[in-house]
Please model this.
Amino acid sequence: MARLMLRTTVIVFVLFSSISRASEPPNILLITADDLGTQLSCYGDPIAKTPHIDELAKHSVQFQTAYVSQASCSPSRSTMFTGLYPHGNGHYGLANANVGFQLHKELYNDLLPNVLKRAGYRTGIIGKLHVNPEKQFRFDMRQRVGFGSRQVKKQVQFARTFVSKSGDQPWFLMFNLFDPHVARDRLANGERGPQYFPDQVDGLPKSILTADDVAAWPWQQIDTPAQRKKIAGYYNCVHRIDAAIGMLNDLLHETDHWNDTLIIFLGDHGPPFTRGKTSCYEAGLRVPFLTRWPGVSQPHVSDRLVGSIDIYPTILEAAGIKLPQRLHGRSLKPVLTPSNSTDWRKTLVAEFHYHGASPFFPRRAITDGRFKLIHNIRAGELSASPSVDGDRANVMAEKLDPNHPARIAMERLKEPPEWELYDLESDPIEFINLSDDPSMDKELQRLKDALKTWQKQTHDPFTDPEFRKTVEQKYQLSSN
Model:
């Protein structure tokens, strides 16, 4: 009898402990990788070998169609901290553009780490923040080596220290990987050298890819030794962040936090190549997006339309914090199980305004998962940037036949029509613009109407020509 009572007591205690632990707010680990598109083996990339990210994906919800709010670093990250698109939070371009891009003052109190800190979380950030004004972010711990560090072993050690010092206090850690962003060395004369990708840092990755191991990007179709060398470097950077994710997974298991930590992993936008980063094409907007919420999520591959806009409300709900009324995104909690009964968005939207100080070329993009519409608001007024981060694919394309689809696509990037329509099922690389095809009128109008509705719902001020003029004048003056 005594043995039975003891066994019953132990079972009750274990059940009570599990229930208590489950009812407590989880720790939160938000992992970002600079310039990382879906170049991962779990997303079907034929070149990438990312076993550690693949392992995390096996335990997560892997969203197949996930957009960042804007394919530029600071605006993209501004959304993660506010739950608002850049048109709503004010961070229209890069924090280091030196023209004054920053968040609206009324949002300072509700920045993600500030809200979590008030709710009792210990907050930390490793790697770059890159959102202005940085002093308004109330992190308990900040660790950064220069603008961006590729020393992932050191970064994981910082994470270990942060977790160990948090004790029983719930924690929020934003872990930012600088790879696969380009590098650029400072020359002896004070100028900066060409952009490149460091193949190996501190022995990572162990195996190096070369130009002979990769192919041209499908969405560029520029196959030269120089371009393939850059692409190989990009993949080497991707493999380095895979090693970092393996170390983080180990850290969570070793510290007994694997089952009480909400993990969100994504890229802050796509690769820094022409038609990728700073564009509204899939290669720029579409990123890997993994979510693991112990006790809530069920591992599966999801076709739900989600984005970085949903990070803020998801984290607040996990922390038990009441959501602000003014949010553009939704908590992902209802779509973290495979159920098809949940009412969810039917379209997903992204945007663009600035990258650096110029040009000001606002765009909007909307997809229903198959068809994609891009609105180039200033088409015919101004040319868009033809490249990014020193990529010369657009220059190489000029050597192609004038009727070559890749050359036409590169030229369309710089001088686009007002509307672009693509069938992502038959044309995932967005080479064939269907906006003038009469047979597509129905799809064109449907997405135009959906975009207009979204702009009303989110109070998009860039629909007003006078507002656009004011914004352009403000930042032109700031750069003079």
Summary: The mean pLDDT is 94. The chain has two domains: 26-184+191-339, 350-479.
